[in-house]
């Protein structure tokens, strides 16, 4: 992503702060955790345990995992619980172990995997939280890592809302031998990956102890990321200080308030609005394509959807 300058602007150091400069208390309350979910507990149980570990008011996860599934489970804390919802539509990646129900040659397995990519049809499984109706999902890639007998290990990158369990079942039916998902691990949600500050519940417990009992906040800052991290998969618009409080009050973003923006914005895209210090202000919908926004000198360019920054952080300059 490249930022394009619409109008040069400076930010006043007396208002707001860079995410990395927040106090540890604010860092926690506006933080997200790239948690390595263990097999066994539900995603909601993980939420509850994180809330108790940190003595927080509320927590929320981005993209539910079944109890037996392990891997990346982003958790939002306090203010960031609403921000974590932006990850629900983010693309996902999994590593799956599929077991075939009968013997079949490896060549046939590899051939059918090539067919099950791009747009596919799926019906959610019986035990799911959504209505069971046929829908289309996009498979970005499905790469076989290893085949050993009836076991097939593969990595799959897919659109949000794709059921890997159903994917395995459909592969088995297409091969004529049947198949089921034996094990599943999520390796990516948006910008959250196994290589990006993945922490366990024990890591978090230890980090909180070092801060609370030994006044050492460094480990907690490593375990908890700024809530802005949860928006890295979305296009961005950076606004002038004078526009921040208006957006915080729910106003839509006009052309005059824009300083810079991502070069890939298209009409109807969901984007996120940032201050010049890199603080998340709100999410919004683009009303025009990039070229029209860059050329506009007045008028509403983005409809504000959800506001994440409190009013009063920046001065009111919009009356």
UniProtKB/TrEMBL annotation:
Keywords: Isomerase, tRNA processing. It catalyses: uridine(55) in tRNA = pseudouridine(55) in tRNA. Gene3D superfamilies: Pseudouridine synthase, PUA domain. Residues 235-309 form the PUA domain. Could be responsible for synthesis of pseudouridine from uracil-55 in the psi GC loop of transfer RNAs. HAMAP family: TruB_arch. Residues 1-47 form the Dyskerin-like domain. It comes from Methanobrevibacter arboriphilus JCM 13429 = DSM 1125. Pfam families: DKCLD, PUA, TruB_C_2, TruB_N. The keyword tRNA processing applies. One of its GO terms (molecular function) is RNA binding. PROSITE patterns: PUA (PS50890). This is Probable tRNA pseudouridine synthase B. The gene is truB. The active site is at 66 (nucleophile).
């Amino acid at each position: 992503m490249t930022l394009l300058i619409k109008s040069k602007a400076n930010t006043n150091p007396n208002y707001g702060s860079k995410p990395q400069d927040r106090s540890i208390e604010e860092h926690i309350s506006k933080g997200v955790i790239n948690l390595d979910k263990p097999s066994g507990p539900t995603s909601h149980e993980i939420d509850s345990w994180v809330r108790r570990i940190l003595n927080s008011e509320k927590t929320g996860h981005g993209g539910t995992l079944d109890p037996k599934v392990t891997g990346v489970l982003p958790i939002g804390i306090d203010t960031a619980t609403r921000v974590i919802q932006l990850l629900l539509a983010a693309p996902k990646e999994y590593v799956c172990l599929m077991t075939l129900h009968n013997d079949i040659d490896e060549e046939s397995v590899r051939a059918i995997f090539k067919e099950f990519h791009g747009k596919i049809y799926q019906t959610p499984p019986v035990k799911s939280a959504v209505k069971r109706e046929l829908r289309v999902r996009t498979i970005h890639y499905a790469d076989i890592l290893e085949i050993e007998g009836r076991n097939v290990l593969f990595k799959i990158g897919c659109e949000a809302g794709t059921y890997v369990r159903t994917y395995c079942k459909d592969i088995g039916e297409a091969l004529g031998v049947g198949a089921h998902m034996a094990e599943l691990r999520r390796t990516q949600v948006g910008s959250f990956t196994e290589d990006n500050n993945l922490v366990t519940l024990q890591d978090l417990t230890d980090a909180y102890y070092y801060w609370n009992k030994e006044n050492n906040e460094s480990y907690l800052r490593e375990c908890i990321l700024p809530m802005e991290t949860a928006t890295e998969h979305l296009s961005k618009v950076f606004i002038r200080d004078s526009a921040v409080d208006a957006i915080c009050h729910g106003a839509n973003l006009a052309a005059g308030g824009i300083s810079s923006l991502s070069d890939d914005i298209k009409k109807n895209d969901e984007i996120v609005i940032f201050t010049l210090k890199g603080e998340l202000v709100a999410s919004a919908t683009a009303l025009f394509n990039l070229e029209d926004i860059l050329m506009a000198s007045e008028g509403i360019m983005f409809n504000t959807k959800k506001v994440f920054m409190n009013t009063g952080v920046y001065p009111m300059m919009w009356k």
